[in-house]
Design goal:
13 helices, disordered C terminus, 2 domains, flat, disordered N terminus, Tetracycline Repressor, domain 2, about 220 residues, single chain, mainly alpha
Length: about 220
């Protein structure tokens, strides 16, 4: 019994998340397994499975611990500024851990920390600023999908490799069939890893969705 208690003490959600992220960030997302993670934690696979029964549960635990790093925007911050801070912070978290993004794939991210630090306050701010519930939810979805899409598919930690892979793929194209792509490499390659693609699009979405404010009578 003491041995089991020690194992469970070592397998705290925070330690599991930190160790899993180290493995994924260092060795790639294919390196993460219950066996490798348990070894890194110094516990048995069975002890690890008591905390998260399968890979889906492990990914939910890791992403929720990661979401706890999202900032809590002070009350009273104007809508555009608060929105920009939240989604910029989410983008920075995702681009810092591309392996985790790849592992999650299409799985929804609905952990309590993300809901508490991003979804709920963003929707509440939108309603207070004058958006209708439907508009608030649609605006949130647009911002979230922009952020997720810009953080996916490219390892922003290694821009040279990302550009090299893109160059190699485009070099295999027939210039007569793809004259634009093959003829404008100098424009295509920087855009692949340019963070301003995200930041510029985020500003445009925020400006387009910015509410005029609640009606004076509060209706």
């Amino acid at each position: 019994m003491p041995r089991q208690s020690t194992s469970l003490d070592l397998a705290t959600p925070q330690r599991i998340a930190e160790s899993a992220l180290r493995i994924v960030d260092r060795d790639g997302h294919t390196a993460l397994s219950f066996r490798t993670l348990a070894a890194a934690l110094g516990i048995s696979v069975a002890a690890l499975q008591r905390r998260c029964t399968d890979l889906a549960g492990l990914l939910d635990l890791v992403t929720d611990q990661l979401a706890a790093r999202l900032p809590e925007v002070p009350s009273g911050t104007d809508w555009a500024t608060a929105t920009g801070r939240r989604f910029t912070a989410l983008y920075e978290l995702l681009t810092a851990h591309p392996g985790l993004v790849a592992l999650r794939g299409a799985r929804p991210w609905l952990g309590p920390q993300l809901l508490k630090r991003l979804v709920e306050p963003q929707l509440a701010d939108s309603l207070r600023a004058g958006l209708t519930p439907d508009a608030a939810i649609v605006t949130y979805r647009r911002l979230y999908l922009l952020t997720l899409g810009c953080a996916s598919f490219v390892d922003h930690r290694d821009p040279k490799s990302a550009q090299a892979a893109t160059r190699q793929a485009l070099a295999a194209l027939d210039p007569e069939e793809f004259p634009v792509l093959t003829g404008h490499l100098s424009a295509v390659l920087p855009a692949v890893v340019d963070h301003e693609v995200f930041h510029g699009a985020l500003r445009q979405l925020i400006e387009a969705a910015a509410p005029a404010g609640p009606d004076p009578d509060g209706s």
